[in-house]
Structures are given as C-alpha cells and as structure tokens.
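Hey, resending since the last one bounced:
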Amino acid sequence: MRAWLRACLMGTVLGASGCGYKSLQQQDEAVKTSWSEVVSQYQRRADLISSLATSVKDLATSEQALIGATEASARSGSQPAAPAVLSDPAAFASYQALQDRLTESLHSLMGVTAAYPQLQSDANFLDLRAQLAETESRISDARTRYKEAVRTFNTTVRTFPTDVTARMFDYRPRPNLTAAGPG
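The structure tokens again:
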C-alpha cells in the first residue's frame, strides 16, 4: 500500500511539474557532446605543440629547457578528460588549469621561435604554426558551443518546475568555462 501511494505521489509531482525529463536528457547530451568536442580540439592542439617543439628543438639548442617544459606540458595536456570531469567541479578546474599552462607554454615557445630566422622560413614549421592557429580558432568555437549548452542546461536545471524533476533524477548544474581560458 505504501509503495502504491509513493508511486501515485511521484506521478502527481511529475505531472504537476511539467516533468521536463526529456529536455533535461537532450540538454545533458548536448553538454556532453560539446564538451567532447572541446577535449578533442585540446588534444589536437597538444599534439601539434609537441610536433612544433620537436621541430624547434633541432634549431634552438640554447632554449632546450623551455622546449622540454613545453613538450612535457603538451604530453600532459594531450591526455583526454574523463566524462566524469563534468560532474566534479574540482577536476574540471584542474583540467582547465592544465590547458591554461599549455597555452602559456605555447606562447613562450612561439616567442623563442622569433629569434630564429631559419626556423621562420622552414616549411614544416610554417605548416605547424598555421595548423595551430586553425586549431586555436576551433577551440574557441567549441568553447563557445559548450558555454551555450551549459547555460541552457543550467537554466533548465534551476528553473521551476523542471528543477523538481532535475533533483529527482540527480541532475546538477554543470561547470562552465571561464572567459579567460585557452582558445
């Protein structure tokens, strides 16, 4: 009898709340999809930075410490983020800090390359630099799509009556990217 009463009460609450379960599911999937695109572009950038550091290493012998640090950052930045990062604000912040450090390393490496004219005329270096510029643009676009998906999802999760359904199915607001992140 008690289980039947609980089921009726849950049905009434869902019916009265307008449920919103379908929209929560769709928006949650949009957040996950847009996040995977961001991570994919970060991975591409890390791979390109590693290749760039290798090509610079041959010519910039006096900058080996910086190049080594950039390669290490690229290796650590190329590790994909687990989907659980979206549910853990601390892990999300840590992943973003890692990407910020990789961006700083890239800027330092590009500053070093300006001192080597023979590098500036190397076709492989120029191609890598162009690919990095394109990837940075893709990262920016992916981050924008992710921010919009999170804004939509978080608004839905926090708005009555869908917030009732969100709490029942343990949907929580997703962490968003800061404006000053990489890309």
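Residues 80 and 181 are 17 Å apart (CA to CA).

Sorry for the duplicate.
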